[in-house]
Amino acid sequence: MAHHKSAKKRIRQSLKRRDRNRYYGKTTRNLIRKLRATTDKSEAEEMLTTVISMVDKLAKRNIIHDNKAANLKSKLTKHVNSLK
Predict the structure, then answer these.
(1) How confident is the prediction for the chain on average, in pLDDT?
(2) What torsion do the CA atoms of 49, 53, 58, 60 make, to the nearest 10 degrees?
(3) d(Cα 81, Cα 74) in Å, to the nearest integer?
(4) Any residues with CB less than 8 A from the CB of 10 and at least 6 apart, and which?
(5) Under a CB-based contact definition with an 8 Å cutoff, are residues 47 and 29 in contact?
């Protein structure tokens, strides 16, 4: 257990950040799942812009790696373009 005041504060902050990061990650994953399940192209194109911005924010905050973000965006764009 931490004995220093700063170490205790660091633990509190990291727990808060962990919860926040898990929330952002889970929300984005759910939206990605919803986008992949969509069959309507116009609706999917609207969702794609929001999903891409969310993925970029996750990469910016180092919740996911930059390459993973790029791969996700590429695959989702391919999926939306393949819809009829």
Answers:
(1) 96
(2) 150
(3) 11
(4) 2
(5) no
